[in-house]
Design brief:
Elements (H helix, E strand, L loop, with lengths): L2 H7 L14 H4 L2 H22 L11 H5 L1 H11 L1
Helix pairs in contact: 3-5
Length: 80
């Protein structure tokens, strides 16, 4: 991970893809992680409702999500 990547991730929810080693600090904070995931999922739903057109805007990913596909899918799977 480059210095730029580390800086851009500071203070943000880290998405787990399954490729990273287990983080002992995060493993003990499952309640906090669940709350962060719920908040992120609510934000994705809000973005969809604000940017997608049609009868069911929440059913389709936005352009923003498609540009960050691995991050979005990992987040949605973990939150499920």
């Amino acid at each position: 991970m480059t210095m730029k990547d580390q800086h851009s991730q500071a203070g943000r929810l880290r998405v787990h893809t399954g490729a990273e080693p287990p983080d002992e600090a995060e493993m003990g904070q499952t309640g906090a992680r669940s709350a962060e995931l719920r908040s992120a999922l609510d934000s994705i739903r809000n973005i969809r409702n604000l940017t997608n057109l049609g009868s069911d805007p929440g059913a389709r990913p936005t352009e923003w999500e498609q540009r960050r596909l691995l991050r979005t899918v990992s987040l949605l799977l973990e939150a499920d």
